[in-house]
Design goal:
Elements lengths: L7 H6 L7 E4 L3 E5 L9 E5 L11 H21 L4 E5 L15 E6 L14 H16 L1
Antiparallel strand pairs: 1-2, 2-3, 3-5, 4-5
Bound molecules: adenosine monophosphate.
Length: about 140
């Protein structure tokens, strides 16, 4: 399977479509999932192309994990969370829908189930959540 540069996250990286930015550095970008399965659900992607965990380089994975670690801790603060669920799907059979490597960060609260996938969130609330995570990162 080859990388398709027209996938939606590649378009987000090229700013051809909008996203709610949370954080970026030289190698990674973090933005909000627009169909959040928990408050603060965000995605970490490498800035360079790869489909998923199967073709990612050690450098891409290391850069993503460093950002996941930063953002996950910021989410704990921003949402007074009890924990974090980290998800990654590879290829359609593995549940992947967008074929640019991404890690889902879901802030979790004790006893609160995740919401079902595929339901568009409230954009004002998602924007506010992005700002809350960014503020926790800056603190
Ligand atoms: P998956 O490939 O199954 O790991 O999931 C792709 C994720 O991308 C889903 O959680 C979608 O809600 C999310 N998603 C799809 N389009 C966008 C978009 N334009 N901006 C932010 N998140 C998106």
């Amino acid at each position: 399977m080859s990388y398709d540069p027209e996938n939606i996250f590649a378009k987000i990286l090229r700013a051809e479509i909008p996203s709610f930015k949370v954080y970026e550095d030289e190698d990674t970008y973090c933005f909000m999932d627009i169909m959040p399965r928990s408050d603060g659900h965000c995605l970490v992607i490498p800035k360079t192309p790869c489909r998923n965990i199967l073709d990612a380089s050690p450098a891409q994975l290391a850069a993503c994990m460093a950002t996941v670690n930063k953002v996950a801790n910021a989410c704990m603060k921003a949402f007074d969370a009890d924990g974090i669920t980290l998800q990654q799907y590879s290829e359609a059979a593995g549940g992947q829908e967008v074929f640019h490597l991404h890690f889902h960060i879901l802030p979790r609260h004790e006893g609160v189930a995740t919401r079902p996938p595929g339901k568009m969130g409230d954009m004002d609330q998602i924007k506010a959540h992005a700002e809350a995570i960014a503020a926790a990162l800056a603190a």
